[in-house]
Amino acid sequence: MTAEGTPVPVLRVHNTGTEPLELTLEPYGSDHWLRPGETFVIWTLGQADEPFRVDHGPATVTVHAESLPAYVGDAEGNEIECGHGRPAPPGPFRLKLP
Hints:
Structural class: mainly beta
Strand order of the largest sheet: 5-4-8-7
Largest sheet: 4 strands, mixed
Order of helices and strands: EEEEEEEEE
Distance between the termini: 51 Å
Helix content: under 10%
Number of helices: 0
Number of strands: 9
């Protein structure tokens, strides 16, 4: 991947599990949910010696972009919006009206 001939740092995240995997991109706090078998690509146009730091826990991966701007996309380079694939909250969800 390049931007006007300059190499762009990328990080691929693949869900090898059987359940959805939450990917959070910091410092934005945007959440993107990978279905089993799905791959997302994180890229940045900024420059840093170590452009990404990754933390993981049960069912979640957090990518800290050390240089900005940073984006989440699919393998074809299409940007993926915040909330992509987010599961619906459990149980009935109702707003209390005045």
